[in-house]
Amino acid sequence: MKRFESKIRKDILKFSFKIITVMILITIITIGFFNYNMRNYRLNNTLDHYGESLEAIIKTKQEELYQISEDVFVRFLQGQSDSRNVFSSFYSYNARQQIKSDLLVFDEDVALVLHTNPVFETDYALFHFLNLVIENETPLAETGVMRVYRSNQSSYLLYIHPIIDGSIIGYAVSVINGREFQLLREDAITNYVIYDQYDNVLSSSSDSIVNSTTGKLDFNNDNSNRNFLYKEAQLYNNINVTAYIRNQNYVGVFLASLIVLTILSLFIYFQTYIFSKNVSTKIGHSLYLLYDELIKVSQTPTHRISIQTDDEFETLAQNINNVLAELQNAHDRNIKLSELNLESERRKLEAQFHPHFLANTLETIRSAIYVDSGLAEELLTLMNDILRYSISEGNVDLSLQEDLTYIENYLKVNQIRYEDFTYEFYIDDKLNHLRVPKLFLLPLIENSLKYGFKYRRDLKVRLSIHKSTHGDVVIRIIDNGGALTSDQANRLNVMLKTTTKPDQHHGLINTKQRLSLMYLHSSFVIKTKWNYTVIELRIAGGHYV
Fold this sequence. Notes:
The chain is of the alpha+beta class. It contains twelve helices and 16 strands.
């Protein structure tokens, strides 16, 4: 008992120590990797969000302006349509976009010929900027170029797309105000800044990192805290996106958490020790009382447990007593039911007698009455003996010698019916007293006759029963009536192993079931050898009644 109580205390304390250790490790890991798990996740999430959104917006601008320029812009610049078609196409496109934009159309000399916002009509600085871009990008790629333009404390993303009809006949410029990108901030979980290769800021979540004079990116502009963690991605050769977050000092939080965890762990460990001592003492006493009583039950099955502990073990003992009583009753009932079921199954199988034999034999008797009354009388006598034997309620299991007498009567009846039919018995005399189920071989002989007469009238059936060198009783029924193929024999053997409710081959299956009921160590196999069909029954190791 002392060893058991000590083991319970040690197990509880070990478990408590493991829990405390895991708590401390989880806290250290959580705090230690907080920056990586949280800050880097926020940076990557924001970077991916703006990167995917900007890429989708720019790609859409390229595709839409390219499609419009192929038709609407070309016809407009060539004077084949008025500005209404341009406005209609552009406003239809703009209405479908989350990020709105304005449109400027220039001729080949970069002279403004159409705009959707009058604020750009006299923005000569913008025109000069566009001239510089177009001159420096000559020849301008068909996919266009992007630039960040700043004017009047506002920043714009310019997408300049050439309008081509054999050669460049003008330019379409999509103008997106940087404030439009604030609409994308709802799905961002940290700060961001969008800028070009010259650090010109297009859009930013905070003005603290933007130089108010030049409009350029300047992380050192924030005097409150210049320590940032950031990640950047380049969308195109001149447009970048950076997600950033301020670094913070978590050392104080880490140390405070560690101190609190240490104090809490010591308190839990002390309380666990007191608890484990009380529990182990109480459980050990009750459990060993129950253990002693169970030893008595194992030595004397009729003994019932009697303990008084005023706890769950006392209730458990009562439940065990109830289970023992139910098990004993169930055991007794199962034995009786098994005996009844076995007897019922054997009688049911014995009662199955082939109706074709009865019908054909009665027809033979009817014909013989007019030709040979003596023959008819002999057939009636044999039939009477077989039927009386098959339905008698007396002996269920008889000696092999006695059972073969009636099987031979059955063969004599068929020998009278078929003049060319012959049969042979080869029986080991030492097995004459073997106890067998009544007429258990008859369905197999019926099966041989039924299928054998389909192929020949001079059918021959041989019954062989002997003892093997290993002490097995081997029973073989051999006939020469159209041997089965190997595939047919294999299919029958598989069916005999898996089928319990036959749709066909009732004789084979019933005989196998009766054999299994009486002889637990038995086998049933159908073989083919030369032109003969062999049904072999084997009772292994001499384990038979």
